[in-house]
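Quick one, tokens below. Sequence please?
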């Protein structure tokens, strides 16, 4: 067993310089390589999160602008529809007034034509009445003249 402990002690004694070298190398790698790498990664993470936050802030700002533009567009549409409705109302009122004035003018013309036609008819009746008496006397004269010839 002494030999085993002696051999084990020799192994430990031979392994000590290697262990110190490994520990020194680990500290060296951590100080020279890993700490700057961690610092770069931390900075990258900070910048990435900052960019992400800025992008989210930009998206929220864009969403609010879109909502504002949509509201303004809806208001403009409703204003245009109101203007169109007012225009159509005025146009219909104007057309109704024109139709009413045209109807009144045509009624006046029709009434004047009826009066004129009634006067012409009355004149024609008088002429026919006077001509009928003349024609009746001519017919009577010709019938009587024809009887005189026959008799």
């Amino acid at each position: 067993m002494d030999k085993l402990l002696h051999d084990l002690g020799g192994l430990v004694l031979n392994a000590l310089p290697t262990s110190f070298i490994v520990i020194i190398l680990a500290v060296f790698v951590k100080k020279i390589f890993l700490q700057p790498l961690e610092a770069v990664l931390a900075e990258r993470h900070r910048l990435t999160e900052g960019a992400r936050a800025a992008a989210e802030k930009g998206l929220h700002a864009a969403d609010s602008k879109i909502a504002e533009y949509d509201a303004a567009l809806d208001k403009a549409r409703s204003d245009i529809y109101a203007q169109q409705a007012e225009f159509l109302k005025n146009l219909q009122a104007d057309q109704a007034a024109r139709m009413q004035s045209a109807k009144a003018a045509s009624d006046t013309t029709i009434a004047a034509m009826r009066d004129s036609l009634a006067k012409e008819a009355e004149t024609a009746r008088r002429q026919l009445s006077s001509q009928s008496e003349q024609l009746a006397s001519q017919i009577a004269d010709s019938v009587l003249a024809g009887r005189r010839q026959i008799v």
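The mean pLDDT is 89. Residues 80 and 86 are 10 Å apart (CA to CA).
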